[in-house]
Amino acid sequence: MSDLLLGALALVLIFEGLLPFASPATWRRMFEQMTRLEDGQIRFLGLGCISVGLVLLALWH
């Protein structure tokens, strides 16, 4: 189980690092736009990410 969790964490870090590595200017603009969002919008984005992740996890198993 810990190997699976470590692998999942490694994949998250890889995917999170792709955009800043490939296009730092785009990542910076996107990050600046994210700081302008309201708390509710950020929560909705987080909920959407969680939902998509759960659906993908359910489909994988």
Automatic annotation (TrEMBL):
The chain crosses the membrane at residues 40-60. Keywords: Membrane, Transmembrane, Transmembrane helix. This is DUF2065 domain-containing protein. It comes from Rubrivivax gelatinosus (strain NBRC 100245 / IL144).
